[in-house]
């Protein structure tokens, strides 16, 4: 049976409520979970990174521009004068 313990003074990263996180571990990972909002995550006990990275819009490769999209390039307006205040 796994013993789940509350972490005193810990704040949930998702909902920000204090004293609602509990932790438990097995042979490979340590788990945290929030009883207020259901947030959960896991860390490996040996300190190694998790092998897979979550897929987000930042780490996906784009296949070019979609229909109706265009690249904009911003240039400095040479007629615009900087005023010192």
Short description:
Helix content is 0%, strand content 21%. The protein is mainly β and 85 residues long.
Describe the structure.
The chain is mostly beta strands and 85 residues long. The protein has a domain at 5-44. It is 0% helix and 21% strand. It contains no helices and four strands. It has a four-stranded antiparallel beta sheet with strand order 1-2-3-4, with no helix packed on it.
Distance between the termini: 70 Å
Strand order of the largest sheet: 1-2-3-4
What does the oligomeric state look like here? single chain
Fraction of residues in H or I helices: under 10%
List low-pLDDT spans.
none
Strand count: 4
Task: Please outline the major beta sheet.
Answer: 4 strands, antiparallel
Radius of gyration of CA atoms, rounded to a whole number: 24 Å
Which features does this protein show?
mainly beta, 85 residues, four-stranded antiparallel sheet, 4 strands, single chain
What is this structure's SSE topology?
Elements: E1 5-6, E2 21-25, E3 29-34, E4 40-44
Antiparallel strand pairs: 1-2, 2-3, 3-4
